[in-house]
Amino acid sequence: MKAVEFEATVGRDGQIIVPQHVVNDLPPEEPVRVVMLWDVSSTDSVWREAGRRTFEQAYGPEDIIYEQLVANEAPDR
């Protein structure tokens, strides 16, 4: 498997323009795997908050026993 990295912009229509030098290296009609990375700093806190709320909804008062067990197993220093 060969990999190439390049920067591009996603247009409003959802299209990504692949640079010509990359297109030249691609075998025609062959499947490719696409991995997209982008800066999530603006949305990262929103996702973290949503994840925390979802986790806390499943956490009940009876679950305090696990915190007590962990605290009791902590080594004395």
Task: Describe this protein's structure.
The chain is an all-alpha fold. The protein is 43% helix and 0% strand.
Number of domains: 1
Helix content: 40-55%
Q: Quick check: average pLDDT?
A: 84
Order of helices and strands: HHH
Please give the largest β-sheet: none
Counted by DSSP, the helix tally is 3
Number of strands: 0
First-last Cα distance: 52 Å
What is Rg?
23 Å
Oligomer: single chain
| Uncertain ranges | none
Backbone shape: elongated
Strand content: under 5%
Class computed from helices, strands and strand pairing: mainly alpha
List strands and helices in order, with pairings.
Elements: H1 20-25, H2 41-57, H3 64-73
Describe, in short, the structure shown.
The protein is an all-alpha fold and 77 residues long.
Essential attributes:
single chain, mainly alpha, 3 helices
